[in-house]
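Study this:
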Amino acid sequence: MTAPTTIFAPDTVEAMARGLFPQDVALATTFPWEAPEGLLPEEAASLRRPNDTRLREFAAGRRAVHCAMQALGLPVRPVPHGPDRAPVWPENVVGSLSHDETICIAVLGHLRRHTSLALDIEPAADLPCDLVPLVCTPTERAWLSVQPEEWRGALARLIFSAKECAYKLQYPLTRQLLEFDAFEITPDLETGQFEATLTAPVGPFAARHQFSGRFAVGAGLVLTGMALPKGE
């Protein structure tokens, strides 16, 4: 059987992800098909009754986090699941991780530089038509309607990923569960940037507050990343 690394482009994906974040954010990649090794005891104890697939994904994510810690010059410390299944980051560290069937990526930064980080990975496949009204606001659907027809499904997927990313960015700060209509996404297809605008107040953030992000598409994936600088 052909090894996944020979038909997948991990270096390409890592370079794509690297371009989404400031240089002081550490990034590491692992593979969710590998043996579920490298978990620290506190991490393993926080994962309750996983199946084999979930255990491999969880272990791959933690291995990536550990590598990112070392890249930041930090000792490796446990990142267990919290009660809400979100990662519990060590003191003075912020981070995010995401995966699909082919790769897992973790990003990590110092809290003194960044208030929150977020990363999302999605397949570069059209968003199913029946999901578009659920995911996209009327304003976003109006924007999609003036794009070339053959791009609309892929751009709807980009909007989906950007909303997932924005949700991950705000959640550690507000602990609020949000629906898709909590954000309106404005992509800039020329620069690879997007704005995520809140449609209502959330925690410390007022309605119409804008969060900035970046996106990249390649190797069969859509990647979105966001970094909220300290003080914003």
Q: What stands out?
A: The two ends are 49 Å apart (CA to CA). Residues 1-7 have pLDDT under 50 and may be disordered. The longest strand covers residues 114-123. Residues 126-213 form one domain.
